[in-house]
Amino acid sequence: MKHAIKGILVVAVMGGLLYAGWASYEDFLTQGQRPPEGTLKLNEMEKSGVPDFSITTLKDEKISLSDYQGKVVIVNFWASWCEPCVKEFPSLIRLLEEYKDDVVLLAISADYTLEDLTGFTKAFEVGGIENFVVAWDQDQAVAKKYGTAVLPESYIIGNNLQLIRKVAGVEEWDSKDAMLFFKEVIELNKAGQLKKLQPESTN
Hints:
Low-confidence stretches: 5-13, 15-20
Mean pLDDT: 84
Distance between the termini: 68 Å
Oligomer: single chain
CATH superfamily of the largest domain: Glutaredoxin
Number of strands: 8
């Protein structure tokens, strides 16, 4: 009788171990089939628009993305220690100067300290550019909403938080093609016809 009970216990234990092992393996296989988190967020943004957010700027002003209805907004995730981010800043500034009444840049910083951020913005003298808005995403709350893990990363956004294009990596924002693209986007945004543009992602 004792041997029978031991045999049942051994079978039960082995069965439990095998089930746990298969469950782990099945979970591993399922993970391999799931798109990355960033891809899932991008798919949702293309369907439903980008998430709104509120943040405090370096000028100590509380702003929300939705405050800029009527403008074309570039939400740019960057940091002063990110060399590619620094590289694209001059072209971003020239784009903003060209379309100062229609394009706004929300530069969302991932800097480790506020001192690093303010030192950088003073060096670039962006404080006097009205449509260049800088904010410190200290706890990365906004970046997490967008699934941003690698810098720089930018989102071009129109009315009603519609995603126009995601740009991963460095962009030459003042190139001839970029200027023509923004000219078209501004016109369509004003006319409420952004649906003519298909959301695009550049990597």
